[in-house]
Structures are given as structure tokens and as C-alpha cells.
């Protein structure tokens, strides 16, 4: 039994999303896999689109080029969304170029006009005989234009817009307008200025800024639409995949729900074959096949067409069959017995009947005789030709009109289980009708009897032996095929999406076929034995086809369940246009690392990335503890306190041993221990859900009670072989008569337990790689030194009558110095960590540890005195019973005392032992806070 959790390896696997099914199948092959949900869910949307959807991109920060580049990575070349985006981007670029040109011209013009003291609203307008205008000209024409404009007396300012382009700001008199216009037409082109430009400067500037913002907002809206469309498409696809998986899972479950019906049908078909075999070969043939000998008389009776006693049949079959089937068989048995007496009657009636007349035989239990004769008294048109009574059954041959005969049969059916056989051409034809009905009922009874026997033995392997001896390979293969359902090796889903749909289709077919073959098999129960063999061949063929469908559905059921279970733990990342990868991260036992890699490489066609590395004890990881043997019962004791972390010792063995020992010490009694042990064994075996606890909890409680009972027996023997509070021998240790000795034992036990706790804390820190912490911790190395020397010093103080002067004795001086040195070492280490880390937390922790060493350790030690106190209290109940016996009687007093002890003290002792384990002991070393290793898959059978 290892004391530390099993070493784990952390893995990360990346595969193309189309191979997700193969990846899950490979992980299932390993089985011991703990999958982790990603700490940060990776989005299939590119980061830019995520930022847009989350509102982190504003019009001023939008990068349209990056947006288009990102969209081209995730969308197909001819994708309508991408085409729309490219079209909008082209439009945006044109707007941007136009905007840049216009805005630059407008800004420069506005600034120049402001410098001239001219409002843009006056541009191109006459103002006190002066016109101000602006025109655009090229590098080649600018010189000539300037020269001619200046010659006519026009004032000109030249503004460079871009390489090869200039704006000329003109100021001229209205009298020059015609000459200036001619020059403008010859060398210049007009500026295309928006109407809103012709306003005052501040309004123009503000409008320019608004125009820039409008274009950016429009671009952002376009990008938001694209991001939303992509997100919705991806989410729809994800939901669709999950819906398909859930639909497949429901389809598989619908097939599982029909498996009992399929098994019942298969057993019915086998039973019918065995009934035919018995009809052809006799009862002995069934005995050689393994028929229960208790059923032989019944089968003999059916084959020999003998009357069967319903009480005998019920007694022989009742404990094996359901009440519904027994009721059905008893009904069929009445019909069978009725047909037997009808057969006897018809053989006697041949001599007294007329072939031209209509006859009816009515038969059933003998209680119908009186009612039948009463009805005949009312209807004189019907004559009773013959009647017969035998062993509680009655039959009558009636002659009369068909309608009258049918009315009498109808009236009797309302009150009795009867058989009414009617024929128009004389009684001779009734003989064949009775023979056929009797053969059908024999087949039904035989099949049901054999079915009950087969159902009883199906799990024991007897059915395989029966079919082997029968020599029917087709039936043998059918049962083998059914028995192997769900255990067939999984086939890789090469086309995951397509095959899921195929599984749904096959599941629907399988359910339909199961129901069809069940209905057809039920009809075969009414077929006479001599015709049954041919009718069964079709049922066998349909069962074979149905089982193939069921196999195809169920062979992937575990993979489908796994896919649904771990769906939240799979992370999908979308890269490039149609490339997606599935990322899986988790942990496996380090010993399974090689096996996992082999399974992945073998079963997954393409692995993009695989890495598995052992996790050091100092790093966080799930806690994997093999719960085998007794540990599976007692681990629940630890889990009440918390899950051990990956770098901690599993305290289960220590918790269990100490709890059991302390329980026995406080509850030492051979008789009570025996009762407790027997109760624990019973609870462990039956797993009875006492007080609503789970079955697993009941088993754990039972195992703990069993060991606690054994411990009580051992301590009861030490306490004078105390049996139900009555000592039978001289005690080795008497809690009530040797109080100081008992207290000393309790204190020594507590000292040993606390030393063990600090030693475990030391080991835990070493495992975690904190060697200095292990040595200088107040609950580690220095704590052990302080406590052990403190025990020596404390012992001398107590034995000296609490004389503190003993501390100055030479023999105690080294121990006193060690006490002081251990405390100073803890404080010094805390001070060093504080200076090193720059945080006062370490120093405060060191101070608290020193206080705990001084106050908590002595207090915890004294807490173990309760072991002695409860041991004494246990014996006091025995003394109390002795005193009470004088007045209440010995039996009554001891009975009352024992009931009180078992009911109250037994529970109280358990609570005290649990407290000492969970608080005084585990608080020194056990941190808990670990994560349980939870295998995501069930092992493949």
C-alpha cells in the first residue's frame, strides 16, 4: 500500500477535428484518463472578431485591413460573407481615398481662408466686388496657369496637396471674371466641394470630423455583422453537433430499453424449439439437455395429454416465474384440462349424433354445470345430448340452433373460463378441431414451462450447454451474439458525422425489428406442435438480422456516451479557412504514458501535437489513489476531512489505525466489541442504507465498525476480560482502579500521535521540495525538537511536584536551551523569508507557529486525557449496574446499563475518536484541498 498518490503525467494532444472520434476511442482504450476543462476556453472565432463582439474595438481603433485579412483566413474563397466584406472594403478604400483627398483639400482650404480672414461661406461668391475661388491644377500646368493669372491681375496662392497636384486659391475683381474663367478652363479643373463646406470655418471643421467618424462607424457596423454571422454559424454548428450526439444517444438508449424484450423473444424461440424437440423425442430428451427434474412430471403430463393439477404446477414454477406469467399459465392450464375432457366427450358422442345438425361442446371447471343447466331450462330449443364430469372439470354436448348455442356460450364466458366449440356438420368435425386446439395449447404450455427453466439458468452458462447438446448451431450463435452485445470491439468512426446519422437510422430499424419479431413469436405460441418447426425458421432468420442491427448500434455506444460526457472538456480551435483542431488536456498515471502514446499513434490517423510529461510533486495535479482492498472502505474517512493534494501523504492508513485504536481504548469490552464487530460485518455485507446513507457509505461504516469492534475486544481483554460490563479475569490495566496509570497511557498515546503528525508534516514538505520549510517549520523539524524536549522538561516538572526550580538543574539545562533554540529557529526562518520575499506574511506565520508550539501543543496533549476519561466512564456503567442490581435485579440492571452503553456511549466514543483524529492529529500535517482524479472513461471490456 503506497502512502503517496500515484505519480501522474500531464498530456496535451492536438488533432484535426475530423479525427476527434478516433482520439476519444484511443483515450477510452487507456481508460485511466482525467480530462481537464480548459482554464480559458479557446474561441473558434479569431481574436479580432471576439474583440469586436465584446465591444473592445471602437471606430477610432478599427483596423479594416486586419479585419479583411482575418476574414480571409476563416472564410472560404467564394463565401458570400467574404465577398460582401471584400466589396465593402473596396468601397471603404475608395471612400478613404476620396475622403483623404477631399479632407486634405478642405482642411488646407479652410485654414488658408481663415488666414485671409475669409469665411468658407464666401467662397465662389461676390463680396464687395471681389471673388474668392479655388481650383485644382497639375504639376505640368501650374507654372503656366500662375503666369497667366498674375498677368490679368489675379491674386494667387499655391497650395501643394500631393505629388503632382496643387490647389490655387484665387482672389480677383468681378471685372476680371471672364478672363479668369477662360484661364481656369484652359489649365485648371474645379474642386468638387460638398455643399456643407460653404459655411463658417468652425462648422466646416466639425463637419469634417463627423464625416470621418461616420465612415469608421459604418465600417465597424459591417465588421460586427460579419463577426456575428460567423459566431452564429459556429454556435449553430456546435449546437447541431451536440444535438446530433444527444439524438444518437437517445436512439442508442431506445435500443438498450428494448434489449429485455429482445432477450425474452430469443428465449421464447429457444423454448419453442425445445418444445418441438420434446414433442419429437420425448421428455427424456429434455432431461439430457438439462431440464429441471422437478418439471419432468409436468412435461410428461402435457406430452401424454394427462390432466395437470394447477396447484402442482404453481408450486413447481411459482418461485422461478413472475406472477403475470404464472397467471397466464394457470389460465392456459384450465383451457388444456377443459380440452382433455372435451376430447373424451366427443369420442363417446359419435354414436348419438346426426351429421346434419349443429352441435356445440362447452367445457370448463365443474362450477359451470349448474349455470349451464339453468340456461337450458330457460331455452328449451337446445338439447343436452351428453355430459361428462372428471376431476373438477365438466363438459357438455349441446344440440340446437347456431344462434341459440352462441348466446349460451356468450353468457357462460362472462362468468367462467370455458371452451366453446361449435360446428354445423355434425360432431365428427369437432374431433379435429379439439385435436388442433389441444396441440396448440400443449405447445404453449411446453414452451412456457421450458421458458421458465431456461430463464432461470440463462446466467449460469447452462443455456450454452443446452444449445450445444441440442446441436442447433443457429440458436447457439444467436445466443452468443446476444450475450456479446456491448462487448464487441469498437470500430473507428471514419466519417463521424455520416456514421452518426447511420447509427440513428439503424437504431430505429433495430427497435422496429425487435418489436416485430416479438409480436410474431407471441403468435407462434398458438401454432400446433407438428406445424411449429417450419414456422420457427422465419423467426430465427429475423432474429439474426435484428441482432446484427443491434450490434452495429451498440458497438459505438460507449464512444458516443464518452463524447457527450467529455464534450465540455474538448477545446476546438479554428485556424486558416476550414481547418479546425481539437485540443485535449489532462492527466494519466505516469505508468500509462507509453501505452497512451501507442494508442494515440495507432488509432488516430493524424496527430498534430502530442506531449506527456511527469508532473513534479511540487506542482498542482489531481490526486490519484488506487482504492483497493480495505482502503476502498476507509478512504471515505479521509474524504470527510478533504482530498489529499498531489504532494501529500495519503493519511487513510494512519486515520484508520488511530481511530480504531482510540475507539477500543475508550470502549474496551469483549461483549460490546463482539456486538459491534458483528453489526459491522453485517452492514459491510448487506450494505443496508442505515439512516439514509448510501450503500458505499454503509459498507465503509460497516468495515470501520468491524475493526472498532475487534479493537474493543482486545482492550476489553486487557481491562480484565470485561464482557458486557462484567470483568471475568484480573485486569492488566484497570481504568477505574488505576486512574493515574490510565492517564499516563492516554498522555503517552497522545505524545506519540502528535510526534507522528509532525513527522508526516516534515515528510510532506520534503516531498513538495520545501526542505528548509520542513526543517524550520513549527510543525516540522523544529516542532519535533521543541515537542520532544518539552516532553522531557514537562515530565521533570510534574514529577518534582510542579517545582519550576528544577529547570535550573544541570541535567535539564541542555533541554531548556533546545526549547529556546527551536523557537528562535522558527522565528529566524520567518524573518529570513520576510527579508527575502519582501512580504510580512512569512514573519507573521512564523510568530503564529511559535505561539502554537507554546500553547496548542501542550493543550492538544492534554486533550488525549479523554481516552482515559471515557475508558473510566465505561467501567463506571458496570459499577452502576452492580449497585442497581440490589433494587432492580441483576438481569434488569445489567440489561439497562448495556443498552445505554451501546446506544449512547458507543456513538459518543466514535465522535471523540473522530475529533482527535481530525483536529489534534491531522491538523498538524494534512492540508487537503486536492482534486480527485476522475477517469473520464469506463475501461473498455
Automatic annotation (TrEMBL):
GO biological process: vacuolar acidification
Membrane topology listed for this record: Multi-pass membrane protein
Localization in the cell: Membrane
InterPro entries per the UniProt record, alphabetical: V-ATPase_116kDa_su
Predominant subcellular localization, coarse grouping: membrane
MF term (GO), any: proton-transporting ATPase activity, rotational mechanism
GO cellular component: proton-transporting V-type ATPase, V0 domain; vacuolar proton-transporting V-type ATPase complex
Coiled coil: none
Pfam family, one: V_ATPase_I
Transmembrane segments: 654-684, 696-719, 739-762, 774-795, 815-832, 894-918
Entry keywords, A to Z: Ion transport, Membrane, Transmembrane, Transmembrane helix, Transport
Domain of life the protein comes from: Archaea
Described purpose of this protein according to its UniProt entry: Component of the A-type ATP synthase that produces ATP from ADP in the presence of a proton gradient across the membrane.
Family: Belongs to the V-ATPase 116 kDa subunit family.
Protein name: A-type ATP synthase subunit I
Annotated source species: Thermofilum pendens
Amino acid at each position: 500500500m503506497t502512502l503517496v498518490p500515484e505519480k501522474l503525467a500531464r498530456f496535451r494532444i492536438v488533432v484535426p477535428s475530423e479525427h476527434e472520434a478516433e482520439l476519444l476511442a484511443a483515450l477510452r482504450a487507456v481508460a485511466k484518463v482525467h480530462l481537464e476543462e480548459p482554464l480559458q476556453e479557446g474561441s473558434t472565432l479569431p481574436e479580432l472578431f471576439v474583440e469586436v463582439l465584446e465591444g473592445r474595438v471602437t471606430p477610432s481603433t478599427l483596423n479594416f485591413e486586419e479585419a479583411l485579412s482575418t476574414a480571409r483566413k476563416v472564410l472560404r474563397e467564394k463565401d458570400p460573407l467574404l465577398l460582401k466584406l471584400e466589396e465593402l472594403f473596396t468601397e471603404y478604400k475608395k471612400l478613404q481615398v476620396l475622403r483623404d483627398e477631399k479632407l486634405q483639400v478642405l482642411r488646407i482650404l479652410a485654414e488658408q481662408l481663415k488666414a485671409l480672414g475669409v469665411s468658407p461661406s464666401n467662397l465662389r461668391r461676390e463680396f464687395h466686388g471681389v471673388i474668392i475661388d479655388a481650383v485644382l491644377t497639375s504639376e505640368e500646368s501650374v507654372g503656366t496657369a500662375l503666369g497667366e493669372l498674375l498677368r490679368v491681375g489675379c491674386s494667387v496662392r499655391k497650395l501643394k496637396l500631393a505629388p503632382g497636384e496643387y490647389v490655387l486659391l484665387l482672389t480677383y475683381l468681378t471685372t476680371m471674371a471672364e478672363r479668369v474663367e477662360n484661364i481656369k478652363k484652359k489649365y485648371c479643373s474645379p474642386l468638387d466641394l460638398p455643399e456643407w463646406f460653404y459655411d463658417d470655418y468652425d462648422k466646416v471643421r466639425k463637419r469634417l470630423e463627423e464625416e470621418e467618424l461616420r465612415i469608421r462607424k459604418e465600417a465597424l457596423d459591417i465588421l460586427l455583422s460579419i463577426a456575428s454571422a460567423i459566431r452564429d454559424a459556429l454556435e449553430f454548428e456546435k449546437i447541431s453537433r451536440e444535438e446530433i450526439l444527444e439524438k444518437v444517444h437517445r436512439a442508442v438508449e431506445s435500443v438498450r430499453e428494448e434489449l429485455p424484450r429482445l432477450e425474452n423473444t430469443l428465449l421464447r424461440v429457444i423454448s419453442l424449439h425445445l418444445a418441438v424437440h420434446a414433442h419429437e423425442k420425448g421428455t427424456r430428451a429434455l432431461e439430457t439437455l438439462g431440464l429441471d427434474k422437478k418439471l419432468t412430471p409436468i412435461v410428461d403430463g402435457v406430452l401424454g395429454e394427462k390432466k395437470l393439477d394447477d396447484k402442482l404446477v404453481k408450486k413447481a414454477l411459482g418461485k422461478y416465474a413472475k406472477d403475470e406469467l404464472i397467471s397466464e399459465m394457470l389460465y392456459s392450464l384450465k383451457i388444456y384440462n377443459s380440452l382433455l375432457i372435451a376430447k373424451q366427450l366427443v369420442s363417446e358422442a359419435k354414436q348419438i349424433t346426426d351429421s346434419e345438425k349443429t352441435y356445440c361442446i362447452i367445457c370448463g371447471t365443474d362450477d359451470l354445470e349448474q349455470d349451464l343447466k339453468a340456461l337450458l331450462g330457460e331455452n328449451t330449443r337446445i338439447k343436452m345430448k351428453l355430459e361428462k364430469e372428471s376431476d373438477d372439470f365438466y363438459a357438455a354436448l349441446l344440440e340446437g340452433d347456431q344462434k341459440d348455442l352462441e348466446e349460451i356460450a356468450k353468457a357462460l364466458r362472462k362468468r367462467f373460463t370455458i371452451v366453446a366449440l361449435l360446428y354445423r356438420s355434425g360432431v365428427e368435425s369437432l374431433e379435429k378441431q379439439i385435436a388442433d386446439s389441444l396441440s396448440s395449447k400443449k405447445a404453449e404450455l411446453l414452451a412456457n414451462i421450458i421458458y421458465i427453466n431456461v430463464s432461470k439458468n440463462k446466467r449460469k452458462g447452462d443455456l450454452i450447454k443446452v444449445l450445444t447438446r441440442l446441436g442447433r448451431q443457429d440458436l447457439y450463435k444467436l445466443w452468443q451474439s446476444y450475450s456479446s452485445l456491448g462487448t464487441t470491439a469498437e470500430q473507428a468512426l471514419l466519417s463521424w458525422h455520416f456514421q452518426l446519422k447511420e447509427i440513428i437510422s439503424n437504431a430505429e430499424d433495430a427497435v422496429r425489428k425487435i418489436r416485430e419479431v416479438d409480436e410474431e413469436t407471441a403468435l407462434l405460441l398458438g401454432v400446433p406442435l407438428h406445424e411449429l418447426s417450419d414456422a420457427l425458421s422465419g423467426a430465427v432468420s429475423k432474429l439474426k438480422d435484428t441482432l446484427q442491427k443491434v450490434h452495429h448500434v451498440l458497438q459505438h455506444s460507449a464512444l458516443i456516451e464518452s463524447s457527450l460526457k467529455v464534450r465540455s472538456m474538448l477545446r476546438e480551435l479554428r485556424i486558416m479557412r476550414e481547418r479546425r483542431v481539437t485540443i485535449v488536456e489532462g492527466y494519466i498515471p505516469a505508468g500509462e504514458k507509453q501505452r497512451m502514446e501507442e494508442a494515440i499513434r495507432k488509432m488516430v490517423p493524424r496527430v498534430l501535437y502530442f506531449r506527456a510529461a511527469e508532473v513534479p510533486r511540487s506542482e498542482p495535479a489531481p490526486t490519484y489513489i488506487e482504492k483497493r482492498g480495505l482502503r476502498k472502505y476507509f478512504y471515505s474517512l479521509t474524504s470527510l476531512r478533504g482530498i489529499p493534494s498531489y504532494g501529500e501523504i495519503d493519511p487513510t492508513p494512519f486515520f484508520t489505525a488511530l481511530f480504531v485504536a482510540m475507539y477500543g481504548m475508550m470502549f474496551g469490552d469483549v461483549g460490546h466489541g463482539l456486538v459491534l464487530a458483528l453489526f459491522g460485518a453485517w452492514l459491510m455485507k448487506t450494505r443496508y442504507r442505515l439512516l439514509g446513507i448510501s450503500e458505499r457509505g454503509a459498507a465503509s461504516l460497516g468495515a470501520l465498525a468491524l475493526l472498532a469492534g475487534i479493537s474493543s475486544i482486545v482492550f476489553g481483554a486487557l481491562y480484565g476480560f470485561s464482557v458486557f460490563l462484567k470483568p471475568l479475569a484480573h485486569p492488566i490495566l484497570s481504568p477505574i482502579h488505576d486512574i493515574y496509570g490510565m492517564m499516563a497511557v492516554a498522555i503517552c498515546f497522545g505524545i506519540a500521535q502528535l510526534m507522528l503528525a509532525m513527522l508526516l508534516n516534515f515528510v510532506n514538505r520534503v516531498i513538495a521540495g520545501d526542505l528548509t520549510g520542513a526543517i524550520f517549520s513549527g510543525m516540522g523539524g523544529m516542532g519535533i525538537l521543541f515537542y520532544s524536549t518539552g516532553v522531557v522538561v514537562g515530565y521533570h516538572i510534574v514529577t518534582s511536584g510542579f517545582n519550576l526550580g528544577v529547570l535550573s538543574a544541570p541535567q535539564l539545562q541542555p533541554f531548556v536551551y533546545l526549547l529556546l533554540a527551536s523557537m528562535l529557529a522558527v522565528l529566524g526562518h520567518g524573518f529570513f523569508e520576510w527579508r527575502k520575499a519582501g512580504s510580512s506574511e512569512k514573519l507573521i506565520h512564523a510568530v503564529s507557529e511559535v505561539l502554537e508550539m507554546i500553547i496548542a501543543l501542550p493543550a492538544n496533549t492534554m486533550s488525549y486525557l479523554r481516552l482515559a476519561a471515557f475508558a473510566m466512564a465505561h467501567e463506571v456503567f458496570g459499577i452502576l449496574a452492580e449497585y442497581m442490581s440490589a433494587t432492580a435485579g441483576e438481569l434488569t440492571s445489567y440489561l439497562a446499563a448495556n443498552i445505554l452503553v451501546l446506544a449512547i456511549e458507543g456513538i459518543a466514543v466514535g465522535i471523540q475518536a473522530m475529533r482527535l483524529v481530525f483536529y489534534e492529529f491531522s491538523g498538524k500535517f494534512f492540508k487537503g484541498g486536492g482534486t480527485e482524479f476522475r477517469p473520464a472513461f469506463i475501461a473498455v471490456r
